[in-house]
Design a protein that fits this description.
With 139 residues, the protein is an alpha/beta fold. It has one domain (3-137): Flavodoxin domain (Rossmann fold), CATH 3.40.50.360. It contains four helices and six strands; from the N terminus they run E-H-E-E-E-H-E-H-E-H. It has helices at residues 15-27, 58-65, 87-97, 122-137, and strands at residues 3-7, 31-33, 42-52, 55-56, 71-80, 101-109. Helix 1 (15-27) crosses helix 4. The mean pLDDT is 91.
Length: 139
């Protein structure tokens, strides 16, 4: 099974990148920014993002419009200060683009401007890994 990890992080803290790096270590798959398109078809893509101004960042939208290769299933993993997930918005966009976005997603808190300090926590990072491993078992 071919697996890829792509992420977008906007803050200097790099909350989403922290999660992506943890997934990369656990799955032994490189975690790359969405600015790097896929160079081969994949069965599973773990897409890591965050809620920005109550929406999905433009970089994520652009990546989904032109990912560079075919994708079997996309699993969304989100961090945000509010704890809100981008999953509904990602699914809606994916539907318009003909992408298979899983109904299963993972969301956790992320630190922003001094709020939610210490997030994502170790438990949240491990939660993302556990989510990804379970998703792969069900593929």
């Amino acid at each position: 099974m071919k697996i890829a990890i792509r992420y977008y992080t906007q803050t200097k803290l790099g909350n989403t990148k922290k999660i992506a790096d943890r997934l990369s270590d656990a799955l032994e798959v490189p975690a790359l920014p969405v600015s790097e398109k896929l160079n081969e078809d994949v069965d599973v893509l773990f897409l890591l993002d965050a809620m920005y101004a109550n929406d999905v960042n433009k970089a994520i939208k652009e990546f989904l419009k032109e990912p560079g290769a075919k994708i079997g299933t996309i699993y969304n993993i989100c961090s945000s200060c509010s704890g809100r997930s981008t999953a509904k918005k990602i699914r809606k966009l994916g539907s318009k683009l003909g992408l298979n976005i899983s109904e299963k997603d993972y969301a956790c808190h992320g630190q922003w401007l001094g709020l939610m300090k210490g997030h994502p926590t170790e438990e949240e990072l491990q939660g993302a890994v556990d989510f990804a491993k379970k998703a792969l078992e069900q593929e």
